[in-house]
Amino acid sequence: LSFYFTFLFLFLNFQIESIQLLKDPETSRSRGYGFITFYNSEDAKRAMEQLNGFELAGRPMKVGHVTEHQNSLFQPSLDSDELDRSGIDLGTTGRLQLMAKLAEGTGMELPQVAKQMLSAQPQQHQHTLPALQVQQQHKQQPQQQHEPQQHASQQLIATQCFMLSNMFNPMAESDPDWDREIRDDVIDECNKHQGVVHIFVDKASADGNVYVKCPTVAAAVAAVNSLHGRYFAGNVITANYVPTASYHQLFPDAVNAVELLLPSYNEK
């Protein structure tokens, strides 16, 4: 699921009809490329203009037209053992760069704090570092530089939905109910801030991702502000908003979710 979520995140600013990710039939591992059908040709054209050649995890993406007769000619541009294992971790800087790229030609403008961060970042592949390493690196910088970095991702796209990362390591979990315990912990915390109506623990995510939808934007903002940057099981949590439409595409059952959830030990 983590590679699929990354793939969808790249194209979340476009109206998408379907996504097909190709896997090796023998190993069931991603081949590093896929096919997208857009609702309209303008979105397809804009995606190619803005994302073709965009550097992701240190490698340029290839985005172009594909027909049934050209499928065999389409070369993977993201295929590697590392991506197959863990997907792509853009990091805070990478997400900012991607959003700036997607905003080109749309009339949308990034918040001032995001612009300041982008102009202040050295032109290195910092976005390829794991989120925890990025967080630790920022701790070594002056406090006045750290605080805007910590809050920038929270200010870009505030919605009812967000994703928590570094919540767990699936390779280190041994309890058969470990995902339920994490679910309960997140619900407990969100219940301090108006609650949560949907939650999904991505057990296969190497980044330890948990997806959450709150009843209101205000509730999500309060929860994100409370959780982002905190320590959980020895790791620093990162929280990033997810556009509601994209969240609903990932989790259709969340569209009509309105009932506040309770931890499993309180469910009747």
| Termini separation | 31 Å
Gyration radius, in Å: 19 Å
Helix/strand/pairing category: alpha+beta
| Largest sheet report | 4 strands, antiparallel
Global outline: globular
CATH topology of one domain: Alpha-Beta Plaits
- Proportion in helices: 25-40%
**Average pLDDT over all residues:** 70
Strand content: 15-25%
Strand order of the largest sheet: 6-7-5-10
Count the DSSP helices: 10
Low-confidence runs of at least 5 consecutive residues: 68-90, 122-155
Per CATH, the superfamily of one domain is RRM (RNA recognition motif) domain
Examine the secondary-structure arrangement and name the CATH architecture of one domain: 2-Layer Sandwich
H and E order: HEEHEEHHHHHEHEEHEEEH
**CATH class value of one domain:** Alpha Beta
Number of strands: 10
Keywords: Phosphoprotein, Repeat, RNA-binding, Signal
GO molecular function: RNA binding
InterPro entries: Nucleotide-bd_a/b_plait_sf, RBD_domain_sf, RBM39_linker, RBM39_SF, RRM_dom
Protein name: RNA-binding protein 39
Give a concise summary:
With 268 residues, the protein is an alpha+beta fold. The protein has helices at 2-10, 41-51, 81-86, 91-103, 112-120, 131-139, 143-156, 178-190, 217-227, 244-250, and strands spanning 16-23, 30-38, 55-56, 59-60, 161-165, 198-201, 210-213, 231-232, 235-236, 238-242. The protein contains 10 helices and 10 strands.
Q: What this model shows, in words?
A:
Among the domains are: 1-61, 2-Layer Sandwich (Alpha-Beta Plaits); 161-254, Alpha-Beta Plaits (2-Layer Sandwich). It is 38% helix and 16% strand. It contains ten helices and ten strands. It has helices at 2-10, 41-51, 81-86, 91-103, 112-120, 131-139, 143-156, 178-190, 217-227, 244-250; strands spanning 16-23, 30-38, 55-56, 59-60, 161-165, 198-201, 210-213, 231-232, 235-236, 238-242. The protein is globular, with a radius of gyration of 19 Å. Residues 118-127 have a biased composition (Polar residues). Residues 133-152 have a biased composition (Low complexity). It comes from Trichinella pseudospiralis. One of its GO terms (biological process) is mRNA processing.
